[in-house]
Design a protein that fits this description.
- The chain is of the alpha+beta class.
- The protein folds into two domains: about 80 residues; about 325 residues, Methylamine Dehydrogenase, Chain H (7 Propeller), CATH 2.130.10.
- About 20% of the residues lie in helices and about 35% in strands.
- It has five helices and 31 strands.
- The strands form eight sheets. A five-stranded mixed β-sheet has the order 1-30-29-28-27, with no helix packed on it. The chain has a four-stranded antiparallel β-sheet with strand order 4-3-2-31, with no helix packed on it.
- A hairpin with a 2-residue loop joins strand 24 and strand 25.
- The chain starts with a helix and ends with a strand.
């Protein structure tokens, strides 16, 4: 029996004395309120001194505190309370004081930002350039080029917007992804997965009937690519021949697929997050996909975005929306990719947006409701920072424009 199943069964076990504890807590609360009213009335008219009055009034306050502790213990010990026990320590974390304007990118590097007008390249000093009227964009491995999408056309442009080549796919293009060595681009065309060389030549069909999920390249420069087929299967294929080298059931309704340097494949949907290890056989070329590791979310939570760190691939960052005391909260949580632990970086009222890892291991988290980008250090010295006025930087004068989304945070070009 795995740990997740054991925890689920334990939540249904009644705790001895649970009902008695709840009744005692309610009785203490009722008695405390009655005593507080009586004591206050007496203190106003009995001629007692200030010290005596404070002593009398402090007694019901102590009773209320004890009642609160009793009720909290009863809640956490009950089966219903067990569902939120792991997340009861979530508190609002103070966000950094916002700095006006996009004057620089904390941590350096360059951002690729999608706006209503198209994608922008943002330099480390905050200067930015609109690439054109494209609806999707993605960096090449070293930031030398950007693959962009417009309707049924896939193109490559330089970071200053200079076009290099274009190809017509014959169906709507989506989710272009460069191979780690920068020699190929995989993309979806309609319901098909296709691959083209990085100069726009040799375009070919890799797999027919795939799910609407961006593919993920094997990170170690081997011709391997992972994708989700239309039947809900996770497949690893040879990117040159299309031969299936490994397969497993995909996470139901998966919307995100990533393959990290550690060999871990991450799958994410709006309701679940899980990782799998992979091992490639040197003799047979087959890829063994390990059993899934499920990462717990708060009860009823929505997963807004998730991404695995671009370095060692040992951490998964996630943005979660969840409810506490009838109010929405949004948290940034780090999960150990191998399972067994998590760390909360931030919790705020309302909702956060997408996130992006920097090449150096820093996190950018969008906060549309506050018109801010939050920059959070992870495993390094430094302080969190917040930049405000983001919407106006990419759509000046247009308050109805959607909040821009960060498509990638790239290293300096070599």
């Amino acid at each position: 029996m795995n740990e997740a199943r054991l925890r689920e069964l334990l939540r249904e076990v009644a705790v001895p004395g649970e009902e008695r504890a709840e009744r005692r807590g309610l009785a203490i609360v009722e008695a405390a309120f009655a005593q507080r009213a009586a004591t206050a009335d007496a203190a106003r008219g009995d001629g007692a001194g200030p010290d005596e009055r404070r002593r009398r009034i402090s007694l019901p306050r102590l009773a209320l505190a004890l009642a609160a502790v009793t009720l909290l213990a009863a809640l956490l010990l009950s089966p219903a309370g067990a569902a939120v026990r792991d997340w009861v320590d979530e508190v609002f974390t103070a966000t950094p004081k916002p700095e006006p304007g996009l004057a620089e990118i904390p941590g350096g590097g360059r951002l690729l930002v999608q706006s209503a007008e198209g994608p922008w390249v943002v330099q480390s000093d905050g200067s930015r350039r609109l690439l054109g009227a494209y609806r999707e964009a993605t960096w090449s491995p070293h930031g030398l080029f950007v693959a962009v999408v417009a309707g049924e056309t896939l193109s490559a442009v330089e970071p200053d917007g200079t076009p290099r080549w274009s190809l017509e796919a014959g169906a709507a293009v989506a989710d272009p992804r460069w191979s780690p060595q920068g020699e190929d681009i995989a993309y979806r065309s309609g319901n098909d997965l296709r691959v083209t060389a990085a100069d726009g030549t040799g375009d070919r069909l890799l797999a027919a009937r795939v799910a609407p999920v961006a593919p993920a390249w094997e990170p170690h420069r081997l011709p391997r690519i992972a994708y989700v087929d239309a039947d809900g299967g996770l497949r690893v294929a040879d990117s040159e021949s299309g031969e299936t080298l490994g397969s497993a059931p995909a996470l139901p309704e998966a919307g995100t697929l990533e393959w990290a340097e550690s060999g871990v494949i991450m799958e994410a949907s709006t309701r679940a997050l899980r990782t799998r290890g992979t091992v490639t056989s040197k003799l047979s070329r087959r890829v063994r996909i390990s059993a899934a590791v499920d990462h717990p979310l708060p009860p009823g939570a929505l997963l807004r975005d998730a991404a695995i760190d671009p370095g060692a691939g040992k951490l998964v960052a996630a943005v979660l929306d969840w409810q506490a005391s009838g109010r929405k909260r949004s948290s940034v949580v780090l999960y150990a990719a191998a399972g067994g632990g998590r760390t909360r970086l931030l919790t705020i009222p309302g909702s956060l947006g997408e996130l992006a890892w920097s090449p150096g291991g820093r996190l950018l988290v969008a906060w549309p409701e506050a018109d801010q980008w939050l920059f959070l250090p992870v495993g390094e010295r430094g302080r969190p920072r917040a930049l405000s006025g983001i919407a106006a930087a990419f759509a000046p004068g247009d308050r109805s424009a959607p909040f821009p989304t960060v498509e990638g945070w790239c290293c300096h070009a070599r």
